């Protein structure tokens, strides 16, 4: 069972690295914000897997939800 959890951790961390790289590479701001939100959601999953559900809930709510909404409103306001 321990190896299964390790595989989940490694897969999550690998996808986090890929999404973070895509955040930097994307030229369109909306795609970069979405990729950044994916990083935050996966990071909250990683916190949950590390038995920190309170930190996971805060990261999902603030990091992925609120920050993404603020960034999207800012992008819409600049055009």
> What is the N-to-C order of secondary-structure elements (H for helix, E for strand)?
HHH
Q: Strand content of the residues, in percent?
A: under 5%
Number of domains: 1
SSE-based structural type: mainly alpha
First-residue to last-residue Cα separation: 51 Å
Shape: flat
User: What is the average per-residue confidence, as pLDDT, rounded to a whole number?
Assistant: 92
Number of helices: 3
Largest sheet: none
Poorly predicted regions are none
Helix content: over 70%
Number of strands: 0
List its salient traits:
single chain, 79 residues, mainly alpha, 3 helices, 90% helix
How would you characterize the overall build of this protein?
With 79 residues, the chain is mainly alpha-helical. The protein has one domain (2-78). Helix content is 90%, strand content 0%. It has 3 helices and no strands. The chain has helices spanning 2-25, 29-49, 53-78. The protein is flat and about 50 Å long. The model has no long low-confidence stretch (mean pLDDT 92).
Question: What is the structure about, briefly put?
Answer:
The chain has 79 residues and is an all-alpha fold. It has three helices and no strands. 90% of the residues lie in helices and 0% in strands.
Topology:
Layout: H1 2-25, H2 29-49, H3 53-78
Helix pairs in contact: 1-2, 2-3
């Amino acid at each position: 069972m321990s190896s299964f959890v390790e595989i989940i951790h490694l897969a999550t961390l690998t996808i986090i690295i890929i999404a973070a790289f895509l955040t930097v590479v994307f030229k369109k701001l909306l795609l970069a914000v979405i990729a950044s939100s994916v990083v935050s959601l996966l990071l909250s999953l990683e916190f949950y897997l590390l038995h920190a559900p309170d930190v996971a809930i805060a990261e999902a709510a603030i990091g992925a939800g609120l920050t993404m909404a603020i960034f999207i409103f800012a992008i819409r306001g600049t055009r």
